[in-house]
Amino acid sequence: MSVNLKRREIMAMTVGSLVGSSAVEVETQPKTAKEEKRGQKKLWRAAHIMAPNPDGLPLLKRAIEERLASLGVNVIVFEVNYKFAFRSDPDLRMEPVLSYEDARSLAEQCRELGIRLIPEFNCLGHQSWSKTTFPLLVKYREFDETPDIPLDNPGIYCRSWCPLHPKVNEVVFALMDELLEAFRADAFHVGMDEVFLIASDQCPRCKGKDPAELFAKAVNDYYEHLVKKRGVEMLMWGDRLLDDKEMGYGKWEASQNGTAPAVDKIPKDIILCDWHYGLQQEYPSIPYFQRKGFRVVSASWKDEKAALAFLNYSRKVATEKWLGHMCTTWVNGADFAKAILGMQGASETARQAANALRACMAEL
Ligand SMILES: [Zn+2]
Fold first, then answer.
1. Measured in angstroms, how far is the CA atom of residue 157 from the centroid of ligand 1?
2. How far is the CA of 45 from the centre of ligand 1 (A)?
3. Which CATH superfamily is domain 43-363 in?
4. Helix, strand or coil, per DSSP, at residue 354
5. For every residue of 155-186, which 3-state class applies, written as one string?
6. Ligand 1 mean position to 158 CA, how many Å?
7. pLDDT tens digit sequence for 305-361
8. pTM for this structure?
9. 133: CA distance to ligand 1 center in Å?
10. How many Å lie between the centroid of ligand 1 and the Cα of residue 128?
């Protein structure tokens, strides 16, 4: 008797009828009552959380234990970026950083609570914020796609690294490997949203090249390392793969800078996180990504009405490719923790994001 069959029998005794269930479904965790009723697979009930400073980590862990787990959150995408005590290249730490032990203990807590913890490191774009350039492009000036722009970033949104620099992946892959190991992760989110600086005239390697080819090359490089070499799943934001002329979302949530054709040049088993934060009648990117053969997660933010509209639209058009829904927060993880715990001192954005998350988890 196989392990699957054994599990199936045990589940049959405890859960009740499993008529029509496949062995694969049985291997997943028990379904919620709503999912059981609809006969669906277990949906992603995900939260996207920004890494707090180390002194905020205990509060975040309390929020996960006391609130997120009971709300049914079963995936946390944890955006770390440079806030980690990297050993392969300690110059790339952006203090104050989470330690290896911090990562292990958070991962352990999530595993005990049945929450899949997926670390995120922003690749390609988002290499600066406001006047601060992040450590990679400070240390390795030669990786910069726009080396002529001063490091306090006048007139730009975020810097990018050059996807064609022959040394950049070696440095970045070592960081990915450290995060995978510290968080004992079986998946990795590479970010890649809002990449506006690509194929720059300032870059001797990329000047004049097709932005879609360059973007696809970057995606394929990360896929090769993460999925092929390390055997984990890969997630990324979907906005650069959407053509704004077809989608009408605007230049942030979709691409006006020539990257969209990359959608046909990358592997279909990458999970796309399709973020839209405003209220719309329709969200055409969900059916679009499904048609293209990708698994997709809808992702909302702090506008509760918009979040519920996007969630319900996604459910309405869902095929088996829609994995579920993710609530983003976009505040420091400790701030969000305060908000979801109902404590004093949380920012207005955190409180709105917490309310929207509660509403989405109740609806899912
Ligand atoms: Zn370049």
1. 17
2. 37
3. Glycosidases (3.20.20.80)
4. helix
5. CCCCCCECCCCCCHHHHHHHHHHHHHHHCCCC
6. 15
7. 999 999 999 999 999 999 999 999 999 999 999 999 999 999 999 999 999 999 999
8. 0.90
9. 17
10. 16
Domain layout of the chain by residue ranges: 1-36, 43-363
Distance 216 CA to ligand 1 centre (A): 13
> Tell me, what DSSP letter sits at residue 238?
-
Q: Which residues pair with 236 in a beta bridge?
A: 272
Q: How far is the CA of 230 from the centre of ligand 1 (A)?
A: 26
Write down the number of H helices and E strands in the chain: 13, 10
Q: Which amino acid is at 232?
A: V
Q: Ligand 1 mean position to 214 CA, how many Å?
A: 8
Taking CA atoms, 86 is separated from 43, 180, 257, 363, in Å, by: 33, 12, 33, 39
- List all residues 6 or more positions away from 320 whose beta carbon is below 8 Å from its beta carbon: 41
**At which residue do the structure tokens 């918009």 appear?**
306
CA distance 299 to 272: 10
**Which SS3 state, helix, strand or coil, does residue 146 take?**
coil
